Amino acid sequence: MTDVSTHRAEEDIRNDSILIWVNGRIVPKAEAMVSVYDSGFMLGDGVWEGIRLHDGRWAFLEEHIDRLFEAAKAIDLAMALDRAGLEKAVIDTQNANGMVSDTHARLMVTRGVKTRPFQHPRLSQQGPTMVIIMEHSRPKIPRPIRLATVPHLRGLPMTQDPKLNSHSKLNCILACIAAEKAGADEALMLDVHGFVNTTNACNFFIVKKGAVWTSTGDYCMNGITRAKVIDLCRANAIPVFERNFSLVDTYSADEAFLTGTFGAQTPVGVIDGRVIGSGEIGPMTARLRDLYKGLVAA
Ligand SMILES: Cc1ncc(COP(=O)(O)O)c(C=O)c1O
Fold first, then answer.
1. Among the atoms of ligand 1, which is closest to the Cα of residue 49?
2. Which of 45, 87, 180, 199: CA 20 to 30 A from 149?
3. Distance set, CA 38 to CA 49, 111, 165, 235 (Å)
């Protein structure tokens, strides 16, 4: 197994004794349980969001809550809480854990407990199951990460739309396994036309001759960090393009980086055995990391 991923955090012993929000109750980690009949466990039938706390503020919380409600509506899951209730649950969990910064939370909602162990969504009759796991989390990226292109594609929207942050992530997990077996940290995934799209867990950017390129946005998560990076480029006169590009363009890039709520901007050193630029974090990635830090702190 490789020792690097975009979601690697420093070991923090405090995470052994965190409190977890489960359907309105805040309980010790060891007691935080959901039913084996839960639709999330049985079928991956649920949606989620990852959010981060920086210096007392949840970054871009509005956007994350919007995306969670949008995903719930798309899968026809009636949320038990409204927006205010959801925000309160986040703050209650934060306060119960005494967290102020460098914290990552995963908000998860499933269709809930089923009466029988079968697929039909109507078998979930008790209302949704919601859990908030909140951990102390300081990202640790000891070196730029390595990517490998894998055969698993970002599919068309009519086949489990890749814009859904669904519990069922098997396509991405299989992609990640294939990348690990190829000696890489994460998978670079192509779209159905063979253009470079995204990784199994983050959005993907390259830098060429001072311009920042990312995919058109079709076939990938509409990442909130992705959108912020594009906005920052526009606000700072950095040319930025959402466009189709291939592996040929990618291997010869001056820099490549990933975006996601957890790791912000993660440098990529190697793709399919080709060193990208210097193999270390490049000046544009470093600049965008600084601009993003400023935005989160604003
Ligand atoms: C497949 C995938 N791509 C990209 C992202 C990054 O999105 P964001 O920047 O909103 O965290 C995520 C995060 O949930 C993801 O699951």
1. 14
2. 45
3. 19, 8, 18, 45
Gap from CA of 1 to ligand 1 centroid (Å)? 23
- Residue 14, token pair as written in the block: 């405090």
Between β-strands 145-149 and 186-190, what pairing exists: parallel, antiparallel or unpaired?
A: parallel
3-state secondary structure of 61: helix
What is the separation of C-alpha 275 from the centre of its chain, rounded to a whole number of angstroms?
25
Residue nearest to atom 2 of ligand 1 (CA): 201
| Closest by CA position to 200, among listed 149, 133, 144 | 149
Tell me, yes or no, if the pTM score tops 0.90: yes
Distances (CA, A) of 258 to 9, 164, 204: 16, 19, 5
Which residue has the CA at smallest separation from atom 6 of ligand 1? Answer: 260
Per-residue pLDDT tens for 102-111? 999 999 999 9
- The DSSP output letter for 76 is T
Q: How far apart are CA 5 and CA 296, in angstroms?
A: 22
C-alpha–C-alpha distance, residues 265 and 277, integer Å:
16
Which atom of ligand 1 lies nearest, measured to the CA of 225?
9
Q: Residue 166's pLDDT band (boundaries 50, 70, 90)? A: very high
Tell me which residues have their CB closer than 6 angstroms to ligand 1. Answer: 50, 165, 172, 198, 201-203, 221, 223-226, 259-261
Instruction: Give yes or no for a contact between 266 and 192, defined as CB atoms under 8 angstroms apart.
Output: no
Cα of 115 vs centre of ligand 1, distance in Å, is: 32
Strand, helix or coil at 244? coil
State the CB neighbour count (10 A cutoff) for residue 228. Answer: 22
